[in-house]
Specification:
Elements (H helix, E strand, L loop, with lengths): L1 E5 L7 H11 L4 E7 L18 E5 L2 E4 L3 H12 L7 E8 L11 H11 L4 E6 L13 H17 L6 E6 L10 E3 L10 E7 L5 E7 L11 H6 L3 E6 L6 H11 L26
Parallel strand pairs: 1-2, 1-5, 2-4, 5-6, 6-7, 8-11
Antiparallel strand pairs: 3-4, 7-11, 9-10
Helix pairs in contact: 1-4, 2-3
The structure holds manganese (II) ion.
């Protein structure tokens, strides 16, 4: 089995080393294409207005000055020689990717790009407690449970327009007892905030971050599984349509369009419909 690994924490992230350890339990044919710099929160950004520089760090190992989406696209189109990878693994992210955050996540986006280009993909994230002195310990749960879980998922398979979003709870490992297939949740409180600070020259700047707040996620959600210390596996797809609202809204909205009153029609605007020479 040929594997392509990416992440959003960057080529030097501890979580990528954890992912490589997981991957090597499944195959020796492991390719890595990861961002030079951290891209957390990059979502599905694709670099279109800048060139993409690639650094080959070793055999089958590339650092790209771009986003996770750039990395997966470049790897599948150019960097991986020979057969196409059978599986894209994205992560292991430092921090969980749950609920509404999955649409912000570069880790999830790396998996989505694999799926979009026809390669089955799994995003993996590791919830972390307070930062420890030895960052490697933070990924102990993912490293211990990831190999068997990924192998089982690959064996079971999933639809081609779906990715799997896996979240490992914080450790210790022996306290994690079960895995649950979940649906994407939605927080009942907002956990993001912006902190205003002042630089050495008296100017203000901001840091965006997360705060820990009590929440009561619904049963069956990724959030509830994470809160209760279970491994969460959420099948996701990128059809963002809300089916029920399509039906409800269509009943009231489908039909002829209503134009603005003629006084504002483009033919009456100075310069005409295509604008004047100085517009
Ligand atoms: Mn990240």
């Amino acid at each position: 089995m040929r594997l392509l690994l990416t992440n959003d924490d960057g080529i030097h992230a501890q979580g990528l080393a954890a992912l490589e350890a997981i991957a090597r339990t499944l195959s020796d044919d492991v390719w890595i294409a990861a961002p030079e710099a951290e891209q957390s929160g990059a979502s599905r950004a694709l670099t279109l207005a800048e060139p993409l520089r690639v650094r080959e760090l070793g055999p089958r190992r590339f650092a790209i000055r771009g986003t996770p989406t750039d990395c997966v696209m470049l790897a599948l189109e150019h960097l991986v020689e020979g057969p196409r990878p059978d599986l894209v693994l994205s992560g292991v992210n430092r921090g969980a990717n749950l609920a509404e955050d999955v649409t912000l996540s570069g880790t999830v986006a790396g998996a989505i790009e694999g799926m979009a280009l026809g390669v089955p993909a799994i995003a993996l994230s590791q919830a972390v407690g307070p930062f420890t002195a030895d960052a490697r310990e933070d990924f102990a749960v993912a490293e211990a449970l990831g190999p068997d879980l990924v192998a089982r998922l690959v064996e079971m398979g999933w639809p081609r327009d779906v990715i799997l979003n896996v979240n490992f709870p914080a450790g210790p490992v022996d306290r994690v007892e079960s895995v649950e297939v979940t649906r994407q949740g939605f927080r009942d409180v907002s956990v993001r905030f912006a902190e205003k600070r002042t630089d050495l020259r008296g100017r203000s700047y901001f840091w965006l971050g997360y705060k820990t707040l009590p929440s009561r996620p619904a049963a069956g959600t990724d959030l509830r599984a994470a809160y209760e210390g279970r491994v969460s596996v959420t099948p996701l797809h990128i059809d963002l349509t809300h089916a029920q609202t399509v039906a409800d809204l269509a009943l009231r909205l489908n039909g002829p369009v209503a134009r603005l009153a003629s006084g504002l029609a483009s033919s009456d605007v100075p310069g005409g419909a295509h604008g004047g020479a100085d517009s």
